[in-house]
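Problem: given the chain below (247 residues), write out its structure.
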Amino acid sequence: MIKLSKRMNAVADMVTPGNVLADIGTDHGYVPIALVQQGKIPRAIAMDINAGPLQRANEHISMCQLEDYIETRLSDGVAALEAGEAETILIAGMGGDLVIHIIDAGMAVCRQAEELILQPQSELAKVRRYLREHCFQIIDEDMIIEDGKYYPMMKVVPVKEDNFWRFLPEETICSCDMYGPLLLRNGNPSLRKYLVKQHKQLNKILKKLESQPDSEAISMRKQEVLEEIALNESAYTIMGEIKNAGI
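Solution.
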């Protein structure tokens, strides 16, 4: 049996049982192998833009004797995936800009899927804003800590429209984009730790900037840091209000 890392196990847990999975950027193919071995999914399509990782995935699939259940395809994003061919599309372990590019380039295919499981490694606010603006609704979120690093992940579904955001103030929307609406709502303990850590780091940066001779560049950077601190504190306030309300 394939044993997944804590991060990838949390990602795999978001896949709806019984769905056909398309794993984009599959690398070693561990997630589809583990899910098929567990009997959680009937079959999968493991895809990667590079031949090397796909060859490694093929070797692991063969070792586990799962050739009848997991197909591999050389593909740039979802280019080699037909619309409706997979109920779940997994895009994990890559930068936020690349996640956005893959969805944008394969919009027709992505909107035909039942769900997308995303685990961007950067640009979280940009990814969430993109999802919000392109009618992908976040229905589940998690954040785990592994080897001292924080990994947020989310399950999203395509919708015709999402009216939820219309009634929220801009500051709350910005906090949700940055830190995750469901992570905030659910009071995710890993997010709480992250917010405390980030607040300390931002204040250290601010003190260092304040000790330097003033200039236009320093002033601009100080303003940026102050805005980040305000956003951080807003997020922690939101979590506290939710906790106190017993939601």
